[in-house]
Design a protein that fits this description.
Blueprint (H helix, E strand, L loop, with lengths): L3 E5 L4 H13 L3 E6 L13 E4 L6 H11 L3 E4 L6 H6 L1 H22 L4 E5 L26 H20 L3 E6 L2 E2 L8 H13 L6 E4 L5 E2 L2 E2 H14 L5 E4 L5 E2 H10 L6 E4 L17 H7 L7 H17 L3
Parallel strand pairs: 1-2, 1-4, 2-3, 4-5, 5-6, 6-11, 7-10, 8-13
Antiparallel strand pairs: 9-12
């Protein structure tokens, strides 16, 4: 009997990469839910696709679960951009917390106890002191943005439904991930898009930047979604796992790597509007628990991620995608 997976946010950055991974490496029958019409159209011939804001309507979401009867639920739909959470905190809190709660309620109502992946964030740890690195699962949670608070709530709701309903929930706290297809609101994609536009003669060959000194644990999204599948299929229900590269890169490293790949000379210009205060100078993950359970570690080199991001924007600007 073929097992079935339901992916929320299937047309998003991580959701689309997870779908490609599952189609290529598993025999799962995939169902998908996305908010935006057409965003997941590339999968329509191979995925049972539903479009709409079902996460906010519990009765409709329960109906979808009853129809899909998933064995695995990958809940990836969320508001993921930290600055947006400062501009409109309640929208992020409502979207992320209510959406997570409804997914858990629909999974319980199904009666078959599907394995549910709850995706938190390394941002849950918030104000990490240098002496507390690397970050493991037992580091204290000190969320310092509305987005981080929403992720703590999703995380704890997942544990609560495991503890109170026996729902096999596996929680993950991924570090920052980059890759082709990411929104240009995020730094790697923003730099790559500017360079690709300069190469095409669409803008002056200047990359506008903010703070380049912060250091973050950066992984390729394709490694992270492979981790999501391993967590859902092999993770221990009730447990939480940190996912990351287990090393840090300065944002300057990311910029320099992309500029080295540029086909035109590029200069760098500081844009005060892009400067955001950062109380955390460095993030590095400790993935010992997850590696011990599944054998997972990142495999895609940082340089390959940068090349693929830049190539994605080159193709997008040429109209190849």
């Amino acid at each position: 009997m073929t097992l079935r997976a339901l992916i929320t946010g299937i047309g998003g950055f991580a959701g689309s990469h997870l779908t490609r991974y599952l189609l290529a490496h598993t025999d799962l029958d995939i169902w998908g839910l996305d908010l935006v019409e057409g965003r997941a159209a590339q999968f329509r011939s191979r995925v049972t696709l539903h479009v709409g804001n079902m996460l906010m309507d519990l009765s409709v979401l329960k109906h979808l679960f009853a129809e899909a009867k998933p064995d695995y639920v990958f809940h990836l739909a969320a508001q993921a951009f930290v600055p947006t959470s400062w501009e409109d905190p309640w929208s992020t809190l409502e979207n992320n917390i209510r959406g997570q709660l409804n997914v858990l309620l629909a999974a319980v109502a199904l009666g078959t106890l599907p394995r549910v992946l709850v995706v938190g964030s390394v941002d849950e740890y918030g104000l990490v002191a240098p002496g507390e690195l690397p970050i493991g699962e037992d580091n204290p949670l000190r969320p310092n943005s509305p987005y981080a608070v929403s992720k703590v709530a999703q995380d704890m709701l997942g544990y609560q439904y495991y503890a109170s309903h026996g729902l096999p929930v596996i929680r993950v706290r991924p570090c920052n991930h980059i890759g082709p297809g990411q929104s240009p609101a995020f730094v790697a994609s923003a730099f790559a898009k500017q360079i690709a536009e300069a190469e095409a003669g669409l803008r002056e060959p200047v990359v506008r930047v903010g703070n380049l000194e912060a250091r973050r644990d950066l992984s390729d999204v394709r490694d992270i979604v492979r981790g999501y599948y391993l967590a859902a299929s092999e993770g221990e229900p009730g447990k939480v796992y940190v996912l990351g590269a287990e090393r840090s890169y300065a944002i300057r490293d990311l910029l320099d790597g992309l500029i080295a790949l540029s086909e035109v000379p590029v200069t760098v210009e500081l844009d005060p509007d892009l400067l955001r205060p950062s109380d955390v100078t460095e993030i590095v993950a400790d993935c010992t628990r997850f590696r011990s359970r599944t054998g997972w570690r990142v495999e895609i080199p940082f340089e390959q991620s940068l090349r693929d991001i830049l190539d994605y924007w080159r193709q997008s600007i040429r109209g190849d995608r």
